[in-house]
Design brief:
The chain is built from 17 helices and 14 strands. A hairpin with a 5-residue loop joins strand 2 and strand 3. Helix 3 crosses helix 9 and helix 9 crosses helix 11. The longest helix has 40 residues. The chain starts with a strand and ends with a helix.
């Protein structure tokens, strides 16, 4: 599905490669250009470094390179400056100087085809999924549930599947949970204990999630994966930029959303095997948020997805400050590395530097551990995969300057890009079709009407019987009102006994009804 927007300038693109920068010899003289081969770009990667050392610029130039190579990109804009990809870069003196320093003779400004997305629908097109698509595992992670609560949530999904209830948005799940609470004894007998306390705790978590803006994320129309895998008429890949500055205020929602998107790519895309270039590259910025406090089952699932998704043609690049933020099982699968400066003032920082240094194929010209602590801004240790997937010898590299703008867009510029977007109008309006909320509400109304009709029928039956008894009493012949003393005494005793039995019977019936309620 080709679209046309923006203008194309190939710039530093070389067939089958993305130019990252130029490495230097120990005497600071230029050595050779450093490239990322597209054939191995789906073997994943890692961009690390302390704040302010140039990680965002490295992400930006990679996104530019992939786009020019015809590879769509998805990335989160945590600070707002990745939006500059959509604008022609300013040829600032320090950028031109860097280009001269690394021998980049054809350096020129360029804009890129960008599609803006936003979970809150303010700085980009709304991006949604359904409760059913998110699934109980990710929802449990999102709401930090206990084991018991996660079990109840799994039962809720099972009931929805068996009853044909669509869980599209938060009110669907809330309605189902309320229904489960009212039938807790029945459900517990079929699936295991479903306590009202656990249901109530989940409902409170849903309320917190809704207050954090989670309601904007769940609903329809849900994101079609094809819409983040677009290319332009001139063959460039679209760069999908998720506005995440506000989203970062809810870090668990941010991490869960990106993990959901990654899992959707894994589930929906077909196997493609080894290709000349990726079908999509996915940048996971602030990657530590994914793994902080994550249960083992979730970490194992991430490791499995990262391991297998490359066969779907997707490259995943984690961006974080510290390589220790990424579990060893995931870290081992990240073949392309860009390591910016790290400090080693504390024992943990020293461990991080050692971990980073040990993951590189050593270069006899310098000590990795020492070099990492002395790298300047815009300088990095780079190692990428070569023939047969073997990592290259690590090189101290001056990262090339970006061709797009360094910095944010104005509101007017962003709005213009949104208006020209190829997905404009596809996701802007929500659709609320019949789902669990409406179905359960209809069932409750029908049940209430049936109960009212039954009570009315019972009342009419009582009135009919009472009228029948009255007619029987009227039709009987009247007897003389006079009675003997003996008759009066016997009638008094009989009336007393009957009245006592009647009161006991009435109390028993009402007591039974009350207990039923």
């Amino acid at each position: 599905m080709a679209v046309e927007w923006g203008s194309a300038k190939k710039g530093m693109f070389e067939e089958g490669k993305i130019y990252l920068g130029t490495s230097r010899k120990p005497d600071d003289s230029l050595q050779k250009p450093e490239f990322l081969k597209l054939k191995y770009a789906n073997r994943h990667g890692l961009i690390t470094g302390a704040t302010g050392t140039g990680k965002t610029v490295s992400l930006q130039i990679l996104a530019e390179g992939f786009s020019n190579a015809g590879v769509p990109v998805f990335c989160a804009d945590v600070k707002g400056d990745l939006a500059g990809l959509a604008a022609v870069g300013n040829m600032e003196d320090f950028l031109v100087e860097r280009a001269e320093d690394i021998g980049l003779d054809d350096y020129e400004a360029q804009e890129f085809p960008v599609v803006f997305w936003d979970l809150f629908g303010k700085q980009g097109h709304p991006i949604r999924t359904t409760i059913s698509d998110m699934g109980p595992l990710l929802l449990s992670r999102l709401m930090d549930m206990s084991v018991a609560q996660e079990g109840v949530l799994n039962i809720a999904f099972r009931i929805a599947d068996e009853d044909g209830l669509m869980l599209l948005d938060l009110k669907d799940l809330q309605s189902l949970l309320a229904n489960m609470a009212s039938r807790s004894e029945e459900i517990s007998g079929r699936y295991g204990n479903v306590s009202k306390a656990s249901v109530g705790a989940i409902q409170r978590s849903l309320l917190v999630l809704e207050n954090q803006g989670g309601a904007n994320f769940f609903g329809e129309p849900a994101l079609d994966i094809k819409d983040i895998m677009r290319t332009t008429r001139d063959g460039r890949g679209a760069i999908n930029v998720l506005a995440a500055d506000q989203l970062m205020m809810s870090p668990r929602l941010y991490a869960t959303f990106l993990l959901w998107l990654l899992s959707e790519l894994f589930e929906e895309l077909p196997e493609v095997g080894n290709t000349d270039k990726p079908k999509l590259v996915f940048f996971f910025d602030e990657a530590h948020l994914l793994f902080d406090g994550a249960p083992k089952i979730l970490v194992d699932r991430v490791e499995q997805v990262v391991k297998l998704i490359r066969s779907k043609g997707v490259g995943v690049y984690f961006v974080t400050q510290n390589p220790l933020d990424v579990p060893d099982g995931v870290l081992a699968q990240l073949g392309n590395r860009v390591q910016h400066a790290l400090r080693a003032y504390t024992p943990r920082e020293q461990k991080a530097v050692k971990t980073a240094a040990d993951t590189f194929r050593p270069n006899p010209d310098f000590d990795c551990f020492e070099t990492i602590t002395k790298l300047g801004v815009g300088e990095a240790l780079v190692s990428t995969l070569m023939k047969k997937g073997v990592p290259s010898i690590v090189q101290r590299t001056l990262i090339r300057p970006p061709s797009s703008r360094l910095g944010v867009l104005s509101e007017r510029e962003r709005r213009k890009i949104l208006d020209m977007s190829p997905v404009s109008g596809l996701y802007d309006e929500t659709v609320d079709r019949e789902s669990a909320f409406e179905v359960l509400k209809k069932r409750a109304n029908e049940r209430a009407k049936a109960e009212d009709a039954e009570r009315k029928r019972e009342d009419e039956e009582k009135i009919r019987k009472a009228g029948s008894r009255k007619r029987e009493r009227v039709s009987k012949p009247r007897r003389s009102g006079r009675q003997s003393v003996a008759e009066a005494a016997i009638k008094s005793v009989t009336r007393s006994i009957a009245s006592s039995l009647g009161r006991a019977l009435v109390r028993g019936i009402l007591g039974s009804i009350k207990r039923g309620f």
